[in-house]
Write a structure and sequence with these properties.
The complex is a heterodimer of chains A (297) and B (266). By secondary structure, chain A is α+β, with helices and mostly antiparallel strands. Chain A is built from seven helices and eight strands. The chains are: A alpha+beta (297), B mainly alpha (266).
Chain lengths: 297, 266
C-alpha cells in the first residue's frame, strides 16, 4: 500500500481519512457555518479554490497524489462515500437546527467528501483539456465529457457558494394598500425597493371543492420607476429587478374572499451560473443518450 | 371521443406492439418497425381525438398523463431498438405500456381526479414522463443483471455474460433520462417553489440514485473490472431507485417533510 500506483485501497483510505478529519472538525469547531459565505466571502473562496486547483495542477509531477486524483481509483471511492453519506442523510430526519447527522448539509464529513469530489472533478477536467489541446482527443467523446463534468463542476460550486446570497422574503399584500416591507426567513422586517399592491386575490375550486387555482392580480411599483400590472399564479412567478415573485399563501379562513395574498420574493444572484451548469449537463445527457456507452463487441 | 372508446384503441395498439416485440425477438426487423409504428399511430389518434373533444391537451388528470406514458414508452423503446437492436427492449416497453393502460382501464375513477395548482405546469409531463422512461430502462437493466448473475443455462446468457456492452448502452440511456428528469425537476422547482434544489427527501434520494449509477458507469470504464460486482452494482442502484420512486412514502424520516407528497405516480 501507498506504493505507486495507488489503487482503490488508497482511494477508500483517503476518503475514510476525510470522514475522520470531518468528525474531528465537527467536534472541535462545530458544524459548517454556511451563512458566513455571503458575498464577498463566497467570491474570495471560489477564487481561492480555483487558485488551489491551479497549484495542484502545477505540482502534479512533484506530488503523486494530485496526479492520482484524476484516476478512476480516486473518483470511484469518493463517489461511493458520497452515496453512503447521502443515504444516511436520506434515512435521518433533516432539521434546520439539527446537529451532526440531522443536519447533513452542515456536517463536516459530508461537506469534505463533496469538496473532495469537486477537487477531483476540477483536476480531471484540466487533464482532459490538456489532452484536447495536444490534439489527442476525440471530439465525439471530449465534448460530452466536458458538458457533463464541467457542467456539474460549475453547478456544484456556484450553487453551494451562492446559497448564502440567496434572499427569500415574504410579503403580505392587502387590497388597496401598497406594501414594501417584507419578512425575512429569520423573521426580520426588510424594506424592499419594490412595492406591491393586491388588486384581487383569485381562488378557484373544482366541482368537488379541491383547489384549482390560486393567483393574485397585483400592481408593482419599483424604485427604478417601473409600474406593472400583472397576475402571479402558482407555478407562474413574475420577475422584476432580479426578484422573482411567487404566489405563496392567502387568508385560509376567508378562502376565496381573502383580502390578502402572501407573496414570496426570491433573489438569487448566482442563478445564471447555476443554470449554465444545469444546461451544460442537460446537453451532456442528450449526448449520452445519442452516443451511448463505448462499443465493445 | 371519450374514455369509453379507449378500450378498443388500447387493445389494437397493444396487439400491434406485442407483434412488434415478438418480431424484434425473432430478428424480423422490418416487421418490428412497421407494427410498432402502426400501434403508436393508433394510440396517438386516440390522444389526438381526446385533445380535440376536450378542447385542451389531455395532460391534466392522472389518467390523461398515463396516456402519454403508454404512448412514449413504446416510442422510446423503438428509438433504443433502432439504435442498438436491443432485442428485449420492445417487449419491455410493451409490457410497461400495458401496465399503465390497465391502470387506466381498471381504475377509471381517477380519470376525473383534479390537478392541484402546484402540478399545473408545462414541466409536469416532461419531468414525470422522462423519469418514468428512465425507471423503465434501468428496470430492464436490473432484470438483465439478475439474469446474467444466474448460473449460465442458455447460450444467450453465456454470450451476454462475456461482455456487458449491451447492458452498458441500456444504462447510458437510463442515466441520460435520469439526469434529464432530475434537471427538469430542478428547473420546475425554481418556478414552483422558488429554489431549484432544496434537499427535499425526494431530491435527496434522486441524488443518491443518480450518484449510484455514476459509480457503475465509471467502474465500467476500468480496463479490468469484476463482472459480478458490476452486475450487483446495477441491482443495488435499482433498489435505491425504488426508495426514490415510492419507498420514501414509507420512510419515517421523510414523513411530513417532503413537498413531493402528492404522489405523482400513485
Amino acid at each position: 500500500m501507498w506504493n505507486k500506483t495507488w489503487t482503490f485501497k488508497e482511494g477508500f483510505l483517503i476518503g475514510g481519512g476525510l470522514v475522520f478529519a470531518g468528525l474531528m472538525l465537527e467536534l472541535s469547531v462545530g458544524p459548517v457555518v454556511w451563512d458566513a459565505f455571503a458575498w464577498p466571502a463566497n467570491g474570495i473562496v471560489l477564487a481561492g479554490f480555483i487558485v488551489m486547483l491551479a497549484a495542484m495542477v502545477y505540482l502534479r509531477k512533484k506530488v503523486y497524489a494530485f496526479q492520482w486524483m484524476t484516476t478512476y481509483q480516486a473518483a470511484i471511492p469518493a463517489m461511493v462515500y458520497a452515496v453512503v453519506l447521502t443515504i444516511i442523510m436520506g434515512l435521518t430526519r433533516q432539521q434546520v437546527n439539527g446537529t451532526w447527522l440531522n443536519n447533513m448539509l452542515s456536517f463536516w464529513p459530508f461537506v469534505l467528501i463533496y469538496v473532495y469530489i469537486t477537487v477531483i472533478l476540477g483536476l480531471t477536467i484540466h487533464r482532459r483539456l490538456r489532452k484536447m489541446f495536444r490534439g489527442q482527443g476525440a471530439m465525439k467523446r471530449d465534448i460530452p465529457f466536458m458538458l457533463n463534468h464541467l457542467g456539474l463542476f460549475i453547478a456544484l460550486t456556484t450553487a453551494t457558494l451562492g446559497n448564502a446570497d440567496m434572499q427569500r422574503v415574504k410579503m403580505i399584500c392587502g387590497i388597496g394598500e401598497p406594501e414594501w416591507r417584507a419578512m425575512t426567513q429569520e423573521g426580520a422586517v426588510k424594506e424592499m425597493a419594490i412595492a406591491i399592491e393586491l388588486k384581487k386575490f383569485i381562488m378557484e375550486t373544482y366541482d368537488d371543492g379541491s383547489p384549482k387555482r390560486f393567483a393574485s392580480e397585483i400592481q408593482i411599483l419599483t424604485k427604478t420607476g417601473k409600474n406593472i400590472e400583472t397576475t402571479v399564479d402558482v407555478n407562474k412567478p413574475y420577475e422584476v429587478d432580479g426578484w422573482k415573485i411567487y404566489q405563496y399563501g392567502y387568508d385560509t379562513q376567508m378562502g376565496a374572499q381573502s383580502q390578502i395574498s402572501i407573496l414570496e420574493l426570491v433573489s438569487d444572484p448566482w442563478l445564471p451560473f447555476v443554470y449554465m451548469g444545469i444546461y451544460m449537463m442537460l446537453a451532456g445527457a442528450v449526448c449520452m443518450f445519442v452516443i451511448g456507452g463505448r462499443k465493445r463487441v | 371521443m371519450s374514455w369509453e372508446h379507449f378500450l378498443y384503441f388500447a387493445i389494437a395498439a397493444v396487439l400491434l406492439w406485442a407483434v412488434g416485440a415478438w418480431a424484434a425477438w425473432k430478428d424480423k426487423t422490418g416487421m418490428a418497425y412497421a407494427t410498432t409504428v402502426l400501434g403508436l399511430l393508433v394510440f396517438f389518434s386516440f390522444i389526438l381525438s381526446m385533445w380535440i373533444s376536450l378542447e385542451r391537451p389531455p395532460l391534466r388528470t392522472m389518467g390523461e398523463t398515463r396516456l402519454w406514458y403508454s404512448f412514449f414508452l413504446p416510442l422510446a423503446g423503438l428509438i433504443v431498438y433502432s439504435r442498438w437492436k436491443y432485442k428485449l427492449i420492445l417487449s419491455f416497453s410493451t409490457v410497461l405500456a400495458l401496465v399503465f393502460i390497465c391502470v387506466n382501464l381498471f381504475k377509471p375513477e381517477i380519470h376525473d381526479k383534479t390537478l392541484m395548482p402546484a402540478l399545473q405546469s408545462p414541466w409536469f409531463a416532461p419531468h414525470v414522463i422522462v423519469y418514468m422512461f428512465a425507471y423503465a430502462v434501468l428496470g430492464a437493466a436490473a432484470v438483465m443483471a439478475i439474469y446474467l448473475l444466474l448460473p449460465p443455462r442458455s447460450s444467450f446468457a453465456r454470450y451476454q455474460g462475456k461482455n456487458l456492452g449491451g447492458l452498458d448502452n441500456l444504462v447510458y440511456v437510463g442515466l441520460a433520462f435520469l439526469t434529464i428528469g432530475m434537471l427538469f425537476g430542478a428547473l420546475w422547482a425554481k418556478e414552483a417553489w422558488g429554489h431549484y434544489w432544496s434537499w427535499d427527501p425526494k431530491e435527496t434520494w434522486a441524488a443518491i440514485t443518480w450518484l449510484a449509477y455514476l459509480v457503475y458507469v465509471h467502474y465500467r470504464q476500468l480496463p479490468h473490472y469484476h463482472n459480478r460486482l458490476a452486475l450487483w452494482m446495477l441491482i443495488g442502484s435499482f433498489v435505491l431507485l425504488q426508495m426514490c420512486w415510492w419507498g420514501i412514502n414509507y420512510l419515517p424520516s421523510a414523513q411530513g417533510s417532503s413537498v413531493h407528497t402528492y404522489s405523482i405516480s400513485e
